[in-house]
Write a structure and sequence with these properties.
With 74 residues, the protein is mostly helical. Helices cover 86% and strands 0% of the residues.
Amino acid sequence: MGDFKKRRDAIEYLTLVSQLGLTMVGSILLCFALGYFLDRWLHAHGLVLVVFILLGVAGGAVTVYRAIDNLPKD
């Protein structure tokens, strides 16, 4: 029974790490796409793209931080 508990905890943490990684990548990719299309539409020569990539990194980092902060403290 104890072995199952150890494996279950390991799988839950692996799932969490995967989720956090995908959250970060998804946030950056979404902002990249928005920045790319807005940059082409506004002819801003990459400025909007860079701003949106930075927003994606910041937004992803905040989301990941909040998810880690909400973990049980045991």
